[in-house]
Amino acid sequence: MIDLSGKRALVTGGGAGIGRATALLLAELGARVVVADIDTEAGASTAKEVAGTFVRCDVSRRTDCEQAVRTAQNQLGGVDVLFNNAGIIRRSTVCEISDDDWDLVMAVNIRSILLMSRLVIPGMVSRGGGSIVNTGSGWGISGGSRAVSYCASKGAVVNMTRAMAIDHGPDLVRVNCVCPGDTATGMLAEEARQLGERADAFYEDAADRPLGRIGQPRDIAQTVAFLASDASAFISGAIIPVDGGGTA
Fold first, then answer.
1. Are the C-beta atoms of residues 229 and 176 closer than 8 Å to each other?
2. Residues taking part in catalysis
C-alpha cells in the first residue's frame, strides 16, 4: 500500500532516533534520501545505510538549511518529501530556564521548520505538490512538567502545521504533524539526565500509558512514511498522536 518509489526525501535530525528510523524506512520503501544532521558521524552513518547523501546541518542556521536543500537539489533533483524532525529539549520551568536555552529550543524546534519549508515549497509547487511532515509531540497537545520551552515550541509546531496546510494546500503541498509520545531515543535518555533520574526508572514511568510501553523509533517512522506517500493523498493539516494512547 505504501510505495515511495521515485520520491526524493530530505530528513533533518536523521542521524539518530526517529530521524534515522524514518530515513531507513523511506529508503526501504523506495525513496532516495538526503540525511541532514549536526552530528557528522551519526548522520554520515545513516546516509551510508540508506545509500543516500549526508549533509552537515545546524537547522537553526539559515545558511546551513540552504546548503542542505541545495545538496538535495543537486543530488536528487528536488525534494518531494521533507521531514522536519530535528529537535532538542531542555527540562525546566519558566523560572529556571535561561534566555539562551529558551532561544536555542525555539530556534531548533520552530525556526528550523520555517527555514527548511520555505526553501523546499517553491520547488514542490513547481512539480505539482509534495509532502511536509513536522515532528510535534504529545506535549504539543497537552502540557507537561518542567518542560516549558519544549511544550511551547511543540505547541507552535502543531498550529504552524495547520497554518501551512491552509496556505499551501491549493498548490497540493500537504503538511501534517506527527506527535510522538515518549520514545526510546537519545533524547529520552537526555531528559532523565537533565532531571537527575535513573534512566531505567524514567523509562518505566514513561511506559505508563494504555499500550503499556514506550515507543520505538520505527513506530513513528511508519506514520511518517504513510504521510509521505500517496496513500495519504487526502490528508493535510492533520495532527496525529503516535503515543500508545498517552494523550487519550
1. no
2. 150
Dump pLDDT digits (tens) for 79-103. 999 999 999 999 999 999 999 999 9
Cα(81)–Cα(132) distance, integer angstroms: 6
Mean pLDDT of the chain: 97
Q: Out of 1.10.260.40, 3.40.50.620, 3.40.50.720, 3.40.50.360, which CATH number does the structure's domain 8-235 have?
A: 3.40.50.720
Domains of the chain: which residue ranges?
A: 8-235
Phi, psi of 94 (to 5 degrees): -65, -25
Phi, psi at 50, each rounded to 5° = -100, 5
Tens-digit pLDDT profile for residues 108-121? 999 999 999 999 99
Check: CB of residue 11 under 8 Å from CB of residue 36. yes
Mean of the pLDDT values across residues 121-137? 98
Residue type for position 156: A
**What is d(CA 201, CA 203) in angstroms, rounded to the nearest whole number?**
5
Beta-bridged to residue 186, according to DSSP, are: none
Q: Which residues contact 197 (CB under 8 A, 6 or more apart)?
A: none
CA distance 239 to 177: 5
Q: Where are the beta strands (DSSP E) in the chain?
A: 8-12, 32-37, 53-56, 81-84, 130-135, 173-180, 239-242
